[in-house]
Amino acid sequence: KQWYQRRVAITAGRRGGSTVPVVAEGYESMNMECDNSKVSNMKCLREGLVFGGADIGNTVVADERECVKLCRDTEGCLSFTFRLSDNRCYAKNRRGGTSGPSLDRNYNSMNMECDNSPVTETMKCLRQGLSFPGYDLIQIVVADVEECIRHCRDTELCQSLTFQESSHRCYLKSRRGGSSGPTVSPGYSSLNLECDNSKPEQLKCSTLDEKFAGHEMRHVAVSHLEECLRRCRDTEGCQAVSFRETDNVCEMKSAKFEWWKIRNHYKSVNMDCSN
């Protein structure tokens, strides 16, 4: 029978020691509380993927189920990667590793908790013809947008994504809307994992026939003021817009304005216009 090596850190109050348990003859180790229930979360296993980084430690185990048990016994373990060639289990302290999955048929990976539900509701957040530049975590080739969403779900820091239709390349992002909002990009589709598709409340606010100067985030061509407000709502940090009526350009702003520079042919509004 194989037992885990006892480490000094166990006596300091950390389940599993300072890294992960390792096999060592002549030692027996134990957590004061443990989970010996049947492994029932194998539907979270992602075959042919590796979760890079966020390593706690690694050791050789019998199979993926033993890797699950090792992760259970290790404080802070949220996911793991299992190397098929030598059955080495890499325990991770972040879902999806540091920045998400990458393709490698020599590995399988798994979060201890996952969401395998249909992506139907999330697909309602899809913005076709738009790209969210910047704040990339990782890029990976996928079958379709739905698979891209599932990878984003599996990645702790992922809040949005961009999908390139020609190459089926999926770009996972750590910020809603990317670095500063969407750009018009034929052949791309983007979405935030969470979005608001309701009619913008700001349309009820008094718009000013003037431009809010400065604090520029992004200029993007839109059809009307309502679309401009929706783009701002999709972009983390966007607090106001100025919509140029002459050419339908939406200017997204990173600050709420209490003063402005007068410009003709503009409609401007703060996203928080309750006051």
Topology:
Elements: H1 8-11, E1 45-51, E2 55-60, H2 64-72, E3 79-83, E4 88-92, E5 101-111, H3 120-123, E6 127-131, E7 136-141, H4 145-153, E8 160-164, E9 169-173, E10 183-192, E11 216-221, H5 225-233, E12 240-244, E13 249-253, E14 266-270
Antiparallel strand pairs: 1-5, 2-4, 3-4, 3-5, 6-10, 7-9, 8-9, 8-10, 11-13, 12-13, 12-14
Derived from helix and strand composition plus strand pairing, the structural class reads alpha+beta
Strand content: 25-35%
How many strand segments?
A: 14
CA(first)-CA(last) distance: 70 Å
Number of helices: 5
What is the molecular shape? elongated
- Average pLDDT, all residues: 90
The share of residues in helices is: 10-25%
Describe this entry's structure for a reader.
This protein has helices at 8-11, 64-72, 120-123, 145-153, 225-233, and strands at residues 45-51, 55-60, 79-83, 88-92, 101-111, 127-131, 136-141, 160-164, 169-173, 183-192, 216-221, 240-244, 249-253, 266-270. The chain is α+β, with helices and mostly antiparallel strands. A hairpin with a 4-residue loop joins strand 3 and strand 4 (88-92). The radius of gyration is 24 Å and the shape is elongated.
